[in-house]
Sequence to fold (500 residues):
Amino acid sequence: MVFSLFPNNDQWFDSYTYALNVRDGVDLFHPHHLLYNVLGYLFYNAFKFTGIGSLKLLSFVNSIFGVFTLVLIFLIVKSRKGSISATLSTLIIGFLYSFWYYSTSVEVNMPALMFLFIALYLLTVKPQSRTNTIAVYIFISVGVLFHQLLILSLIPIFIYDIKKYRSFAKPVLYVLPGFGIMALTYIIIGILKAPEKSINGLYEWLTLYSHYGQWGKIRTENLIIGFWGITKTIFGGDSLRRIFYDGRLSWLNMIYCMAVVIVTTGMVWLLLTSIILFWRHHNQQGLLMLGFIFVFGVFAFWWAPSDDGFWLFPVILVLLFAFGENSYRYQRQKITNVVLILLLAINIGYEIIPASQKENSIARQGASALARFELATSDLVLTNFNQIRLALDYHHRIKVPTASLVYLESGDKDIVISNYQKRIKEVLSRGKVLLFEDEIRPEPHRRFLYERFSPDDYSKTYSPFIPYLIPVDSIKAYGRNVIIYRIDPEIISAGKITSE
Fold:
């Protein structure tokens, strides 16, 4: 009911990319989520007669995956702590902002989570047997085909099985059917899709993202960024950003901040008490859960510490561990009830309802605004909201290039800026150039925009164009009005940007 009443209408770059790929039948095989687009393509064509579009249809499919995952979480906790604890844990996890987001978006995280919890259900609830163990590895291996991240779960499961069977050879035999299915699928599709038909080419294709240099960095800043990534996983973050950066401490904002502090304190308290209880009474299932938390947490911290999609895995597992280890006494029940009520109230009221309203979507607003200008592929839009280009294609079937300082090629900054200005001038000589205001002065809370270029670099890049900006429209973004300008082509005759 929640996912149906509050669908996500503020989907981002990846969601629109997958929806367009499925709609157009292109790029269906991606090495990091090999079968996700293929499954989406099959669903889309099977239900194309409904006319609801790939974005809405695949979001609904992900909602089914999310609901089934919550059912599995309920059954796992119920098997150890009873129905009340299971209900509370399921509701708290279900009302995490990121769980709602990925259950109502076209994203690869939810099918991977579903396969992970199928395996966990078999491991922790069903009677253990050779057939059961083989099935666990098969489900994990199939899940890897929807999201490579899931391969990390093989590490704690394999160690758990070595201890369970007191043998190294048996787990190796049991993992082979599932691993064989996964490896064979990757090899066959990799040979067909890899640009270079060789072992090295297959490896380069298989590890595509790792060669971009944008992810997988160990820095001291990861501690702060990772904390923010976890915060986004639980609370969404948009309301917190507006409060801290706008400095508007209204009584509603103060209530929100107090609720966030109480929920966070309650979750930490539940986790600490569960760790104490686990320390007193060691059990294999608790160790297994800690193994999952460790591998997924370390990966999120290293690979993309700001990405709530990666933090969702360890955060859910931490909560599952806390509920699985805690004895459900009256005091803990009261604290859990407070956490649930406040989490439900602030996430629905401050994050989920706003994100479910189309008029609040940056992508949809931007696409609707741009659609009114009759843009073509010969034009250019300057914006760091790069999902707007995809939304424009999806909702209006208009293709137009976009550019932003932050997404330009690597190299000497002065040369990159100079080439960027020349490109803008070239487009002005034959078409329209639209510029979003926050591309000139990015929002301070979007810190990634300043990782490469400083505020002075932004000023240097756009200062020649500022006298020639004509306001033509605006959209709401992050609680403020963002003006859309058209650059007057008279700048060329004025000689402000030269081609030398």
